[in-house]
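Render this sequence as a predicted structure.
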Amino acid sequence: MSAADASEFLPPRRSLTALRAAVQNCRGCDLYKGATQAVFGAGPAKAELMLVGEQPGDREDREGEPFVGPAGKLLDRALAEAGIDAGAAYVTNAVKHFKWRPQGKRRLHQTPRAGEVGACKPWLEAELARIGPEVLVLLGATAAQALLGRAFRVTQQRGTFVESALAPLVTATIHPSSILRAETDEDRRVAFDGFVRDLAMVGRALGGRAS
């Protein structure tokens, strides 16, 4: 029987190093059973910018690092075009284990259920408390609704800063994986350009806070 959530698995000391080690023993939901490992966040411990996605993908699950697959490469490209140093950002996911279903030899992504997202939330809250970002960017509906509530709609509210106690500036945009799933090259180009515009707003805000 699984725990109600991940709370009991968090370590007494909440450094990123301690959290990253402890998450490997998390049994807050059943997703650990099908995953290779838990995938914790990565980046500077006092990053001004924190980006939160949905969950690790197949490659992240195998390598143990967030955003190292195709969506991560697209995110890095979009950040560069928006004038943001990807290496200066802290990146993580709302859910730390890869949820998937088999299709032949492939492992296909499955969207985590609300209960699984909620069970994993203590890890994300611990990361937020430790990083203390100036700007928080939520990538996709799962991340946005995990922290801003089920009523939040990325399609309607993306690219604007919303009031939240999570960070001085909080915004949401699409997840880069949605760009990869677009049906045509033109659809991907339009989606990518919109993604860069949202991130450019973040870049301007970061520049203004640094000046």
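Summary. The domain at 6-210 is CATH 3.40.470.10 (Uracil-DNA Glycosylase, subunit E). Residues 60 and 66 are 6 Å apart (CA to CA).
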